[in-house]
Amino acid sequence: MSFEEDTAVRWDDPVWRADLNPRWNVGNNPNGGYLLAVAVRAMLADAGREDPLSVTAHYLSPPVGGDVEIRTEVFKSGKTLANVSASVVQAGRERVRVVGVFGDLSDRRGPTRISARPPDIPPPDECASLLDLTRQAGRAVPEVMNRFDLRLPPDSPWGRPGEGDPFEITGWIRFNDGTQPSALSSVAFADAFPPTLLGALAAGWVPTIELTVHVRARPAPGWLLGTFKTRVLVDGLMEEDGELWDSDGRPVALSRQLAMVLGS
Amino acid sequence: MSFEEDTAVRWDDPVWRADLNPRWNVGNNPNGGYLLAVAVRAMLADAGREDPLSVTAHYLSPPVGGDVEIRTEVFKSGKTLANVSASVVQAGRERVRVVGVFGDLSDRRGPTRISARPPDIPPPDECASLLDLTRQAGRAVPEVMNRFDLRLPPDSPWGRPGEGDPFEITGWIRFNDGTQPSALSSVAFADAFPPTLLGALAAGWVPTIELTVHVRARPAPGWLLGTFKTRVLVDGLMEEDGELWDSDGRPVALSRQLAMVLGS
């Protein structure tokens, strides 16, 4: 079983269907990035395009593992870009609404200028496994965490930022079954890190309200380097701004989610 | 005539209608932030909520001034939040698709922690008017630019960033008719600055593909301080990441758009 198989969709006229695998669960509910990737598979198929360029998910009501239907609408199909909407429905109830624009990242022409720089952390071998850290701390390991090999630097300020620092988590990530990253899976990687403020505040739960991912490039094989920051938490509403860099040092994706801190 | 009047919508069962005022045009087409604000007015009314928390617009085909219909769907209405989709249609063709989540920013409880800091530029009186700068440079003034009083610092690196610097524009902004900023108009302010890379590259046109704005607070009266950066331009695809701060120094909105550089 791999990311590819677990996100498969099949056409069952007039909808797409998928079987959400509980291997991607946090508690009883599928991880939001996995859910988004499943929807994006159906959207890409309908769009007849290779790559997601920007996708926005609104999370409405968490589904459980098992069958979902995905109702799609191509609302624009142009020469370069196609725009698609999708509703992920389970038990007659809409769970996620997605809007996305799709194209072909291998066929683009235009200027390149990158002033952003990848975060500077030690190589993966000198970092600590999040799984090991979580087990050592005696904390429960969400099932989805077993799908990823996620490494944090030994001096990671995660969970204990200094005064005036953003809440931040930075680390290496890859699938733990050897599956290589792709433009599609970058939308899942954008929601695979623990919440930036987990451990920093007595937050019981930080559900994602909305997640937008821009994909700029198909990643090279190997590790992705991810960094996620929260700079503006106001009355429990916060962003998580993410960047994903590939093993060639190229920026692959930018993400931003709106999340809400609920009491513990 | 004011922002309030120019964004008014009226119910004409089963759709909303608005009259796009060409005072907000860039060339023959309404500015994207203005268009978004018109759609958001209809969405707020349908949601029965006070404030936009996150709105995402996909720009499909530019309309012209005049009548548009706005077809809305409330796809979730919960205790705290409501999610709404809207299609802005003109001459039978969809022009903009918007998805948003709405709530009440005055009624929120939860932690606040802000590590972001407003940009440090001279006060508005010591800055230069963008209108004056544009006229002095002998460049055409887009009609929408007359709706705003936008001031840039005298040493603004806009249009001529150094090696390794992001493309960036920072300045003060307010409506030029004395209308005070609001949560609604913050979505228009998020698209009111000139493109970050205007003047820096020989870009003919930088159309917005997708724009997402998070609103965190209702702004205090007075100036807004806005800063917009582009750090990852790859093969003509770029983000513009924006922040808007109010006159009390509080962060009001975060924005990100995906734009595409087209040849000149």
What does this structure look like?
Two copies of one chain form a homodimer. Chain A has 264 residues and is mostly beta strands. Chain A folds into two domains: 105 residues, Acyl-CoA thioesterase, double hotdog domain (Porin), CATH 2.40.160; 143 residues, Acyl-CoA thioesterase, double hotdog domain (Porin, Beta Barrel), CATH 2.40.160.210. Helices cover 13% and strands 43% of the residues of chain A. Chain A has four helices and 19 strands. Chain A has a 13-stranded antiparallel sheet with strand order 1-2-6-7-8-5-14-18-17-15-12-11-10. A two-stranded antiparallel sheet of chain A has the order 3-4. Chain A is globular. The mean pLDDT of chain A is 94.
List keywords for this structure.
homodimer, about 260 residues, mainly beta, Porin, 13-stranded antiparallel sheet, about 45% strand
Lay out the secondary structure.
The structure is a homodimer of 264-residue chains.
Chain A: H1 3-6, E1 9-12, E2 15-20, E3 25-26, E4 29-30, H2 32-47, E5 51-59, E6 66-77, E7 82-90, E8 93-103, E9 113-114, E10 128-129, H3 130-136, E11 148-152, E12 167-175, H4 183-189, E13 203-205, E14 208-215, E15 224-230, E16 232-233, E17 237-245, E18 251-260, E19 262-263
Antiparallel strand pairs in A: 1-2, 2-6, 3-4, 5-8, 5-14, 6-7, 7-8, 10-11, 11-12, 12-15, 13-19, 14-18, 15-17, 17-18
Helix pairs in contact in A: 2-4
